[in-house]
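[audit] Reproducing an earlier prediction to check determinism. Same input, same settings, fresh worker. If the tokens differ from the archived copy the diff job will pick it up downstream; this log only records the rerun itself.
[audit] input (154 residues):
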Amino acid sequence: MKRNSRLSGVLHALLHMADKDAAMTSDELALCLATNPVVVRRTMAGLREAGLVRSERGHGGGWHLGRPLAEITLRDVHTALGEPGLVPDTPQPESPCLIEAAVNEALGEAYAAARAVIVARLAEITLADLAADFAHRMAHHTHTGGRHGTDHAA
């Protein structure tokens, strides 16, 4: 299964927004998401509708977080993105082969259960948790002389 990186990419961009004192433009966020500004604006529009971000036009405008980090769960972001795939899609149970139909039905039930567990876990993690984890990793990384990669979207 190809990994869907949309959720992780947007979480990455949101943490950059939280780390920056000023608004971030679509161009800056496009660097975080490795895409173009048009895709960023479409993605951010869904987040804005969910109240997770807000935007300001004009000089000095751009994207800001709409709520404190502690009030935004990963499930909130996942839902605002239209619930991108976290596990494989449910196989089509309509098969003339009885074995394939049985396998597809069993997989469908397993995938649905896995999705429910993942979404429940996403509801327990906030952006503040991710930011704290990042700060901890950076403190350890800097302490051990490692190079950190936060400069690509600044």
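[audit] rerun output stored. Observation attached for the diff report: The beta strands are 53-56, 62-65.
[audit] end
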